[in-house]
Amino acid sequence: MTKSGWQFQGEQGVFKLKHPEKNSYLYFPLVNEAGMMSAITPNLHGGITSGHNTFLMEPVSVDDLHNSKASRNFWLYIDGYGAWSVSGNSAKQNAAQFVSDEEESEMEAGFLWHKLTRHYAKLGVKAETTSFVPAKDDKVELMKVKITNTGTAPLEFTPTAAIPLYGRSADDLRDHRHVTSLLHRIYVAEYGMEVQPALSFDERGHRVNKVTYSVLGAEGSGKAPTGMFPINEEFIGEGGALDWPEAVVRNREPLATAGTELEGYEAVGALRFANVQLLPGQSVSYVVAMVISDDRLEQGNYASQYLSEAKFDALLQENEAYWRDKLDTIKFKSGDAEQDLWMKWVTLQPILRRLYGNSFLPYHDYGRGGRGWRDLWQDCLALMVMEPNEVRHLLVNNYAGVRIDGSNATIIGSKPGEFIADRNNIPRVWMDHGAWPLLTTLLYVHQSGDLDILLQPQTYFRDIFVKRCGERDLSWSADSGNKLTTVDGSIYEGTILEHILLQNIVPFFHVGEHNNIKLEGADWNDGLDLAPNRGESVAFTAFYASNLLELAELLTHLKDNTGIETIELAEEMGILLDSLTGPVDYESVDAKLALLNRYYDAVTPAVSGKKLKLDIAKVASDLRSKAEWAISHLRSNEWISSQEGYEWFNGYYNDDAQRVEGDFPQGVRMTLTGQVFSIMGGVATDEQVGKISKAVDRYLKDAKIGYRLNSNFGGIQQNLGRAFGFAFGHKENGAMFSHMTVMYANALYKRGFVKEGYEVLNSIYNLSTDFELSRMYPGVPEYINEKGRGMYTFLTGSASWLLLTELTEVYGVKGSYGHLHLEPKLVKEQFDGQGEAAVETLFADRMLQIVYRNAALLDYGQYRIGSIAVNGQSVQFDASGSGALIQRSVLDALPKEGTQRIEIVLEQK
């Protein structure tokens, strides 16, 4: 398609954007597995860090990107002209860009590198600045600056690299900013300078510090700088600034050489290189390395590894191959090549979430590192098809964060098995947290066929909070450890299945006045955090109900396919399986809560350690009866209508126990979340799904920003959540929140409402790529605001859901207990001119290229699978509706090397 803004180049997802500096808030991620996390902007601004307490450059929020002058910079003092910045980040160039386009600029980026080209034809100088973080074990960001004389006369200049070195915790940005500079110890050596603060001066205490922050550089040939300006105030001069530093503007002689040691000042990695004369057409290059290390550097080692043009180019090539290999585990090929390339950037996003967490990029200025419980499980959805080798271990390990009361730790540390109740030890429970692990584990079981994972033993998380954080157990102390014990003091373990059952059965009894599950601290929408007493989440009552049905089916499959007749559960869990031990009336809120309190008392402060051996069929029956009751309850009590005659499910009750959706004096109130899980989990009948779709189009669909998360509730809602304090149309208050919009599409596809689902997904793509409005690089944002701008780019759980929806629903490639289930839901517009659509993906430890051939260009609903060939050989398959099941044994017989082609011919129904 023809559009303004960035344009794709070639077939690897590389894109270009002319005059990128004319757009605000743009940034690009550069990262590696070693923990180097950077963000870079069109004028080389952005952050460089390895964690909340170790920022090489100053921590930045999005407004700092154009207000702060502290960026990566590289200066030329050009004879006869003066100071010129290769990034355009000088006082003179910043002023000139608003009145003149004399300087041409272009940004180009790929996986995962960033290149800025600036050309000042009048001066005869072109600068190409390429940046990336190598796929190495070091925390290093590399930058190569190539200067070319494009004029007709010799070009003489003096080059200076200038990277401000912040070198401390983000907490020091406004808390003891000057005092912490007094800790700085600055060491100048042959290739650059290092800053090693004497102490870590942050909330963890005043401890001896070893972490070192360095800026090193060399000419492309490997020749070291001629000198340095290590102290910021001396580099910029009295009355100067980083965008007009005296040392460059007046072309001062360097103030320090190798061996100089300084202390007590703000530092800048300002490296002066030898004067240069370039004849017309000639070029010269410089390589700069920004390093965070655990201690002082051996600069010679870093120089030999990184500081030459040949090394830089080789590492860049290696880096491109690394990311290409990672992202080629899933590739889409449809009738829209542009959208297929865009999906490559979406594919990257779940990996970025794993590496950055939800922090360290400019929009994510609230993050301190780590990931939340929900993020952990949702990000695993995409990793399941992209990085499957570690998934089993991850899943088993994650279950150690579950508490015996069905709640869980909410913050996941950086080390395996490290779980925290919450930041600052605040007791809080998100009521939706128990719902996600089953969904992720089921995907794994269906992809792999590995039922044994359900019977793996795992410990439980234990801290001071008990009874879903309703009480503190003062007998517990930090010395007690964070694992649940039995009454005799030994560590208790239960199966993964036991953990899953607990997380889904406990909420069933934890209900409010309307017999829906209590909202507690919030659900998926963290902004609904002001109804902890009487609030209820109807939306997630539907999700938990569908989970109970899924569990019943899973147990039945386990029994039928493994011969397992019984399962062992903690003795106390017999209380929760009430139909087996002492049935209660599910219509009675009091009876449910009384049962739950009996269970809480039984497991506080420890469990007996004894196990119940239960008939697996009876446990499945208990779960099914709970699910069926909940579904009937929701259909009977939460189906509502507006005066205009539209119908949908109410999603919530507020802290005054009032229903929040429907007709109100301020207008109709509706939430998208309340519809998604009712549709996805089968609570809504097919007829109701159709009615919900019409209601969503009426009250939530907006031509400018797509499907809103909610309609305008008309003011703050102190009895529901902080989200309504946000301006309407922003973030969780009525923006197009990508995560829930993608899940809405997923739910529609699941239920066979394919045209409606396609329209939803297409809207997200069109909104994200409309650069005039979205002003974002390729990918899906966390949300689209009222102006149509893409917000909180790169780090969003919606990318996992979008990737999964495209693969498993649109292209219909999914597992069924290890077998391959193919059920495409492609509309005719998604096939190319030859009637083909394809996806490459990992399944059964093999790369599969799955090609759908639709020669007659039939639309969804008109075709079915006619024949299947694997590597040209026809294979038998089990028909399943409009889909087909290929037995795992067929795939296991294929070689693991190379790509195996599965060709599916679609024919008229």
UniProtKB/TrEMBL annotation:
InterPro entries per the UniProt record, alphabetical: 6-hairpin_glycosidase_sf, 6hp_glycosidase-like_sf, Gal_mutarotase_sf_dom, GH65_N, GH94_catalytic, GH94_Enzymes, Glyco_hydrolase_94_b-supersand
Keyword Transferase: yes
Every Glycosyl hydrolase 94 catalytic domain range: 644-806
Glycosyl hydrolase 94 supersandwich domain ranges (all copies): 103-306
Entry keyword annotation includes Hydrolase: no
CDD domains, sorted: GH94N_LBP_like
Entry keywords, A to Z: Glycosyltransferase, Transferase
Pfam families: GH94_b-supersand, Glyco_hydro_94
PANTHER family recorded: CELLOBIONIC ACID PHOSPHORYLASE, CELLOBIONIC ACID PHOSPHORYLASE-RELATED
Protein name: Cellobiose phosphorylase
Source organism per UniProt: Paenibacillus woosongensis
